[in-house]
Amino acid sequence: MTGLEIAPILLSVLANRTVPTKSDVRGKLDEVSRNTKISDEFGQLAAEFNRSLVDRIESRAKDLDHLELQSLAFHWDIIAEQIDFTEIVFESEEEAVTWLIEEVNEAEDVNLDKEASEELQKLLSEEFRNVVDDFRDRVIQNEELSQQLQAKFQADVLDRLATIREEFDQLAYRRPYTLYSFPEDRERVISTLLPENTVEFVDRQEVPKNPDPGRYVVVGPSGAGKTRILAAFINRLPENSVNHILLPDERMLDPADVRGITREEFAGDVLLVWEDIHRIDEGGESLVLESAIHELSHALDSDGHTLYALLEARSGQLHNVPGNLPAAFDDEQSFWSDFEELRVENVDPDFIHDLAVRMADKYDVSTTDGVLEALIDQTASRSAPIYIDAVLGTAGDELTISDMEDLPDNVEDLWKIQYESLQSDSRDELYVLASMKLLYDLNLPYYSKLVRTIYLELLSGDRGRFRRSVEQLKEKRQWIDIRGEDLVSRQTQYYIHDVQLEAIQVRARDDASELSGVLLSEEESLPTYTRPIAHLNAGAAFSKWGHISLAIDQWKAALDLDPTFPEVHFNYGLLLAKHQGNPTEAETHLRKAIEYDPEFLEAYYRACPRNTDREIRFHGC
Fold first, then answer.
1. CATH of range 177-343; options 3.40.1800, 1.10.10, 3.40.1350, 3.40.50
2. Tens of pLDDT along 33-64?
């Protein structure tokens, strides 16, 4: 297979990092390139590099439905043949990738737009990073090759390769968050937080009229309106209070994503807004949240700026938040000591009345003042405004006093009644929701294609009714919201309140083996860049439930997609040590977690325990 010549690109970068005088780099590069042993090693890597790169471009083109990227993958061999590598000398990894993209763009019939060029930069950087990893492994395993490189460059080549790998990794990183300008993007932030069909703002007594930015954790029961409070806070934030608002697009589980944030160029103070921090890592191993705040604080402080934070967690799930909340709020030694708890408990009756009126209008439900007052009384006693939404969202055209008398005491029971009705009236709609519930248990996003796959493969849903069922749930029942251009495209995500899913009587752990098989065989239902994280999350869930072999299957799949994923190596290593009695392989994975993320403090702690009786110990700890 014809393809890119990776040896001159990587050797040029290596020469620039080891040769003291830049004028000598060209001569040193020619000398090293003539070394048969070194060239042979790179030749074996080049074929795999090109195969993998073309596959990645094809997959990403499919995800984005991007014709120019599809054409690039199809004509890759022809394009690569037109690139002249004979005189190249690069001073940096970024220069190498930029040059290569420019060369691709100059090939006949290639005209990449900005989006395609950015995607190609990430893909090239990721594949170069993988090549450096593979070459470094070969150097470690081949003493003759190691000695020849050491002699040629008169430097610690392994150390230089590690640096080069890190630079390519930084070029490749994807932002799992969105950075907004404030106040220009205020409405975009609010619309991201709230469902598209949400009712208008109702005053929340917890939020001041002109709040000062600070560090807050909004705490309350499920359905108390915590996300509403986040949105209301941002809605009322004075225009000159911050310069940026940063929202994670999805839960950040990889510490490399945290380091990526610090490479941003901030024009001023930043407000970090993070929902569902209790769901970041229910296994309790992840320190990503704390790392994100530490790293951001340090980066902003060095530039004379300040980091503010507005976080949200469910009060009944605080044990899943890193740092022993809520006791840690009062602990001066704790990470949480400079955070203020913003607790949502007592709901003002006037607020409930205003909300009930607007909800009735939203769902087009007719009722009387007496019925409305009865609903308000029941809601106030529960401190959960979602009760109003659930009642009116399932009431049909009219809500009567007799309806109120028959209502269950809590929201979850109310939804259970609704789902029992779906079982006989609209079974495929229930299957769509059940598919989402299985993904909820695994802490995975509800991507349309993945929901549909589980609906078909695990629940035997009617192939022709999936789209119609989603339409019914969205348009008629108004139970779910959609983010995406089409109801069933790969990138489209479904949104629904946790309480609605928790009421569904299906559990992922009951169908663990079948569900694991679907995730492995149908992973293309997910956008490409989310697949390693999906397998990481699934593995964590299966491990927590005691399905050790399934966890291993998921983590192996994650490493097949991204061999440099430190969180996967870390979790895999812990599992091998605890359940498999395999300290040698466990140590290997913990070493890799540290190698791929030298700032992964938890991996150091686990790998180098103070307790000498622990099985896993690194030499030199």
1. 3.40.50
2. 677 677 677 766 777 778 888 888 888 787 77
